[in-house]
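Is this the right way to post structure tokens for a design question? Let me know if I should format differently. Anyway, here goes:
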């Protein structure tokens, strides 16, 4: 849970009493990430200095789920001014109800970690409870065949405080323990990319570490939020740094071969904020893709993964996708030359499910793992599903079974949405 991590102070900042948002103020420091506490928790500064408490409720504000909204501090809590204590007081503070808190202290260079500055007692946080995954586990067991490559697939986690990531991670661990997969694939947008680069890496690192804790290799695509570019964020992360941090690689585009399954998985970068056309594929990546496709043996099938879809017609955020026609031509040429060799192109970004079968191979969109439901800003033909906090629909990810010989991909859904299957290029 969020409370298990170390929250650090931001110096020269405090909390606005009217909004609960952070603001600059010399002489003060505050933990930017709220700390999760239970009712009756007693908090006291170790050196008995004075501090103020600002309280945030666990109920997620509905506009964050049901409208196109990004909370500027990635803080999915509800500020409670009436419970907060604005006066600087020394001694012990008692938290009246469960929720999250920020504490404002007098600024001092030695104050770094919230956990090192305060003595806390009586903070008994509940275990993470996720919906019963037995139905998904049963379907995975029913449909798995010996030659299947098994993937845990998710997209657009957009980690936030009080979001649904911890429940998503717990559900992945539960299913993985009963039905071991071969790898995890994340299609990008680990966070909102609106915080400092340090905070973004902290939050994204939690997602990455949780997925690696499954014991599986993690393959990921970079999302447009992952470069810390969103909403004119000044602390951008360079593409080179992104490749190293998120992917553990020198390049943002790469491939993985599973010879025993006769499969090559291609991961291609689809966003660069330094280009005029930010969405799409660089000329360098087009040449790289061409070499990857041409060097693949005839008996090996290909699946392409990206964050942004390859076609402008299913992308509402721009009229064009750089080099869309070029990457499609490379793949369709192989498909024409070796029928059935391109099993699918799978992407995230749209925060919606979709299967486009108008080309020689299917293009599959994956809904967002973030708890979200709204129907605007979606391409024609896409599906979104009602999502509610503290229900099974809070989750959304897929257990994927890929059978190269039968040219079949099964997407078995955890949470909101339905199972989907494509076979020999068609949705069945």
């Amino acid at each position: 849970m969020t409370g298990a991590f170390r929250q650090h102070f931001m110096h020269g900042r405090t909390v606005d009493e009217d909004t609960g948002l952070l603001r600059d103020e010399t002489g003060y420091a505050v933990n930017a990430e709220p700390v999760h506490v239970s009712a009756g928790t007693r908090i006291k500064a170790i050196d008995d200095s004075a501090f103020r408490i600002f309280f945030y409720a666990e109920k997620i504000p509905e506009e964050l789920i049901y409208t196109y909204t990004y909370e500027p501090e990635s803080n999915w809590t509800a500020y409670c001014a009436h419970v907060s204590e604005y006066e600087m007081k020394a001694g012990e503070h008692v938290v009246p109800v469960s929720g999250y808190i920020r504490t404002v202290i007098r600024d001092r260079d030695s104050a770094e970690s919230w956990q090192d500055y305060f003595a806390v007692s009586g903070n008994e946080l509940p275990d993470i409870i996720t919906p019963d995954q037995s139905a998904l586990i049963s379907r995975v067991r029913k449909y798995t065949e010996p030659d299947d490559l098994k993937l845990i697939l998710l997209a657009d986690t957009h980690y936030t405080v009080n979001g649904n990531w911890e429940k998503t991670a717990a559900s992945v661990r539960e299913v993985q323990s009963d039905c071991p997969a071969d790898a995890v694939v994340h299609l990008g947008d680990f966070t909102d990319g609106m915080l400092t680069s340090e905070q973004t890496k902290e939050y994204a690192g939690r997602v990455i570490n949780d997925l690696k804790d499954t014991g599986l290799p993690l393959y990921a695509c970079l999302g447009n939020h992952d470069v810390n570019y969103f909403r004119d964020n000044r602390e951008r992360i360079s593409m080179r740094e992104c490749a190293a941090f998120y992917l553990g690689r020198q390049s943002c585009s790469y491939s993985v071969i599973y010879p025993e399954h006769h499969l090559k998985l291609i991961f291609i970068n689809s966003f660069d904020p330094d280009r005029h056309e930010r969405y799409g594929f660089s000329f360098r990546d087009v040449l790289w893709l061409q070499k990857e496709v041409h060097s693949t043996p005839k008996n090996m099938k290909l699946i392409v993964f990206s964050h942004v879809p390859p076609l402008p017609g299913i992308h509402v955020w721009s009229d064009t996708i750089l080099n869309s026609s070029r990457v499609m031509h490379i793949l369709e040429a192989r498909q024409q030359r070796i029928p059935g060799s391109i099993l699918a192109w799978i992407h995230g970004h749209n925060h919606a499910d979709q299967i486009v079968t108008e080309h020689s191979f299917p293009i599959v969109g994956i809904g967002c793992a973030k708890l979200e439901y709204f129907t605007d800003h979606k391409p024609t033909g896409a599906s979104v599903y009602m999502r509610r906090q503290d229900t099974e629909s809070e989750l959304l990810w897929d257990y994927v079974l890929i059978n190269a010989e039968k040219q079949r991909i099964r997407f078995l859904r955890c949470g909101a949405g339905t199972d989907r299957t494509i076979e020999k290029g068609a949705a069945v």
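Format looks fine. Someone answered above. Worth noting: The chain has eight helices and 22 strands. The radius of gyration is 23 Å.
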